Amino acid sequence: MDHFELRGGVLHAEDVPLTAIAAAVGTPVYVYSQATFERHARAFADGLAAIPRKHLAYAIKANPNLAVLRIMRAQGYGADVVSGGEMARALAAGMPGCDIVFSGVGKDAGEMAAALDAGVGQFNLESEEEGIELAAIAAARGIAAACALRVNPDVDAGTHGKISTGKAENKFGVPYDRAGAIYARLAGLPGLEMRGLAVHIGSQLASLDPLEAAFVKMGALLGEVRAAGLTVTHMDLGGGIGVPYRAGEVFPTPAEYGAMVARVSAAWDATLMFEPGRVIAGNAGVLLTRVIRVKPGVTQPFVIVDAAMNDLLRPAMYDAWHDFAAVSPTGHTMGANIVGPICESSDTFAMGREIDAMTAGDLAIFRTAGAYGATMASTYNSRALVPEVMVSGSRWAVVADRFAPETIFAAERVPDWLA
Ligand code: LLP
Question: Is there an atom of ligand 1 within 6 Å of 372 CB?
Fold first, then answer.
């Protein structure tokens, strides 16, 4: 459930009419609801109430805005980061280093050193080679880096191929059947404190079954590693729970997820770690846009909006569906193709969709844009970088400025020989 509802015929974010934000900030603009972030953060944690020892690390790639990180911190979450930049954000938002998990398949030496200096709580290693490199950097500092080994369980998450990470052919983690040997090798290196196993099989999962299959395999591996005399105190179960993008879709609830995890991990005797992203942020944001014009099409008209694939990449990249709704619906509907102004055909949000009737100048939203929305935005076609607004009750604030094209090309240089 979110806090983007019609009141008096006008869509509101909590107590703020979206018309007011559009008038003040312009469009396109992402609008977030603090109460929705808080509600989802609590629901996820409540779902895990039966897990005695746990660490919640919000996957900040989903939405790394500093205001969002502040909210998550206040809810007791640490951060899962995948780059030096994400780590810097988490620290800037007041997350203690010890609550940060550093994931990612390509951490470079500079990022590893910075993370050690920041006292990052856990590195999730994705290869033996990475472990050897981190061990050397940590040993040179006279410390041992706390690590988990990310394992590729070869389980099909049943999600879009581009966001599936747990099949053997994916680049993530070490092969399941070699994980025990690699763990043993890394545990013998000064500079590493091997303490756990990690898994993440993909994102936007519609069913708990593949997650359960992966966790069962991880439990068996845990037994093998311990039987070899090695220590495992932490099991990182990643993120991945999907959210409804279409009205009426039903997804596993945090409570159902928690019950499954509790059942599978009952005998593990380990601290469980979680990296939720989308399930927290997805429905906590919308992309507010204005219709530029409506143009006739062969079968249905094109509704051309001022948001484009550079602002919300998911439809172009993953064929993703985002519900589209008028800010001030008239009750009439129309069949339409919803497109942005960018000069390529992939700048299409929807084809042949039945939507609220729209004319030039009308405001509308793409729903479920709080995760993997603004964070994936670019300035392609020399468009402005899309701004972000946070709403809390009747208050609202711009939490990321619109970056004008002039600001962006001000950082470009013409060399002498071209001047
Ligand atoms: N942990 C790891 C190691 C991950 O790679 C991810 C997501 C997460 C946690 C968080 O997963 P979530 O709970 O959000 O499913 N841009 C794509 C999604 C990419 C997800 C990448 N990894 C999209 O827009 O659908």
Answer: yes
